[in-house]
Task: inverse folding
């Protein structure tokens, strides 16, 4: 059923009430995707621990966290939008940070980052 308020709003915009589709009240929101784990199979930095961090759309969404070869860390369900590019970076102050790879998030699974001599696996699950 289309409410009177929606019909009035449509009329104010010059639309007919037939153009207004009703909103399903029972539609459930999508759960989304979350990052749950990161494993360092091979660190990039050979002079100490990597300062690993994850970036989406130019914003850091996790880290930096120090990691060395063999480290494995659970991540507290950090959201990552499907279809976005997830980039793993390694902090190298005062030099430029190292890009360890970028992957388009296409759904749940393990994403491997192997650029610049590193080897990390990031696990993404349904939220």
Result:
């Amino acid at each position: 059923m289309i409410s009177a308020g929606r019909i009035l709003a449509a009329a104010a915009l010059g639309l007919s009430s037939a153009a207004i589709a009703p909103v399903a009240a029972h539609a459930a929101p999508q759960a989304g995707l979350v990052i749950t784990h990161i494993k360092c199979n091979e660190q990039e930095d050979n002079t100490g621990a990597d300062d690993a961090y994850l970036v989406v759309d130019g914003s850091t969404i996790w880290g930096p966290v120090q990691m060395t070869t063999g480290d494995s860390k659970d991540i507290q369900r950090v959201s990552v939008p499907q279809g976005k590019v997830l980039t793993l970076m390694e902090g190298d102050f005062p030099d430029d940070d190292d890009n360890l790879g970028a992957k388009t998030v296409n759904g749940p699974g393990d994403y491997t980052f192997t650029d610049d001599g590193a080897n990390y696996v990031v696990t993404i699950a349904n939220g």
Remarks:
- DSSP finds one helix and eight strands in the chain.
- Residues 4-12 form the longest helix (9 residues).
- The first strand starts at residue 33 and ends at 42.
- Helices lie at 4-12.
